[in-house]
Structures are given as structure tokens and as C-alpha cells.
Amino acid sequence: MSAAPQKAKAGAEKIDVTVDAIVRVNELVTRFEFVRSDGQPFPPFSAGAHTVVEMQDGDRTRLNPYSLMSDPADTSRYAISVRRDDQGRGGSLFLHTKVKVGDRMVLSYPVNLFPLDLRARKHVFIAGGIGITPFMAMIAQLEHMGGTWELHYAARSRALASYADDLVARHRNRVHVHYDEEGQAIALEDLLDGQALGTHVYVCGPKGMIEWVHRTAEAHGWPAENVHSEEFLAPQPGKPFEVRLCKSDIVIKVGENESLLEAMERCGVDAPFLCRGGACGQCETDVIEADGRFDHRDHWLDEEDHASGRKIMPCVSRFVGPTLVLDR
Ligand code: FES
Hints:
Blueprint: E1 14-24, E2 29-36, E3 49-57, E4 60-67, E5 78-83, H1 91-98, E6 104-108, E7 111-112, E8 122-128, H2 133-145, E9 149-155, H3 164-170, E10 175-179, H4 188-193, E11 199-204, H5 207-219, E12 227-230, E13 241-245, E14 250-254, H6 260-266, E15 285-295, H7 303-308, E16 311-312, E17 318-326
Bound molecules: FE2/S2 (inorganic) cluster.
FE2/S2 (inorganic) cluster (FES) binds near residues 275 and 278.
């Protein structure tokens, strides 16, 4: 992540919205467009920002982050695209199967952990699958500003390449789509070597793709600050564990399919967050006492922090053992 996170308190900044349109993009991806329920314009956002969508699924509140893909200059609506994940924890399935046009929902104010670096002479975007969404907003922003950009988009097949036809139709010379099924791949080394000084590269997609771009760029002499990536990790299930929260003076149980952050929220503990995906640092929590093994899954803390056992990121990380006491 290339930008310092903005400070925000959990639950403090929310927008009541109404679902205005639901558009099936392909077999797996659906776009949701929201307007404000009070008829006011949305707060402006910068391309690369995400919003956390609050979903009331029975007695469970789901909070999932999604990149805003709409044109940042359009304050009349926000749009997200959601890939259905049948093996996931249910947020995307809820959106795909339960949400209807006219439903009232709640979004968080946008937060940008993946901004454009506007000092760049040129912006090269590398997208994998649903990782195309932040680039839709970035392209719109740069088109308004007259910025220079190009997109390299890897998709499994033509049928699943969300928005590819539209992007190619509008920006034929700048958009290059590569279909895995047809044996096409991004020629990353050539792409990186061919860029002028002052170019920045941005990658959003599967973990392997993000690592590949960082690794290749480093090997080809790119400065780290010119390489930007976006990866939100979905919390993974794990064995249930118990946590004592000192300040709140309660003991809570973290279930198999919920994150430590979600368990705190379920128990009424006001815990901060921004990304809910191990990327922003906002939920960082001090460990008072621990007897057991941490399962650190974030990419915010460094190896030393992980090894020290004195910090945990509750949005994605877990714990195995009899005793965990946190300063929360
Ligand atoms: S909420 Fe962003 S790292 Fe946990």
C-alpha cells in the first residue's frame, strides 16, 4: 500500500443508500449501483477508493469491502462490481441472491488505500479478473484529467472478462486484454522494461499476480515507490478460540467462520477498521498476554512484529491456544 490510511472510527461515517440498479455483467459478476436515500449527492472520492458494504443477513451483520468502480466525478451514484464466491463466507452470495432494486443499505464513507500517484508521468494498470474494478474509476479519473495510462487485463475467458469489450471499444489503443483460456499472458518483463522513467505501475488481482508484479519490477530495477498494489484478504475460517478483552472487560469466543474483528463487533465492542482485509493497519491491536500460536494473515505488520507476539490485526488474523488477552 502506498498511502497512509486516513483515521476513522468504526461505525462513525456511514451513508444510507438505496439500490438503484443491479446489472448482471456475466455468469459470475454483478454490478450494484446505489443512490443516496436522502437524495443528496455522494461525497466525492478519488479513484482507487473502497467502501464497506453493510449487509443485514438475518441476525448477522456482514461488512464487506468493495472497490468503487464508478466515475469519481459522478456524485449521483456509487457503483461496485461483485464476483460471486460460492465457497466464500457468504457476503457476495448475499448480494447476488438477496439484494433487490429498491432495498435500503448502508455504505461506509469511501477510503482510499490504493490512490493514483498523480506525480507519475504515466500510469500502467495490471488487472487480474475482478481486480479490474478500481481501474475503471482510475481510467475515468485520468480521462477527465488528460492523464496518460494503459491497461493490461488478464481474464480467464472472453465470457468472464468483465467490462473488457466496453473498455476496448472506448480505448482501443490503451487496453490490452489477455485470455488465459487462449494461452495469452501479459509479457510483464517486456512491459516493464519498455516504460519511460517516471512511470508508475498498479496491480490489482490474485495474490500470485501481485507478488509476480512486485518481484519482477524489483528485479528490473523499478523503485518500490513506483509499484502500487491492492489486495484485500478475505478472512479465512479457523478453529474457534477465546479472547479476553481488557478494556471492555469481557471474554469473547471467535467462531470458526467469523474473524476476531467480527466477533468483537457481534459482542458490541467498538473496534476500528477501514479495509477489513489486513491491508490498512487501522485495526492493529496490542497483545497483553498470549499462550499459544498466532496465525498472522495480514500484510500490514512486518516479520518482526509477527514474531514478537505483541500485536495482532483482528480483521484477518487468528490465534490457536488457551490464552489470548488484548488491549481492547
Ligand atoms: S481493518 Fe485494515 S488491516 Fe484490519
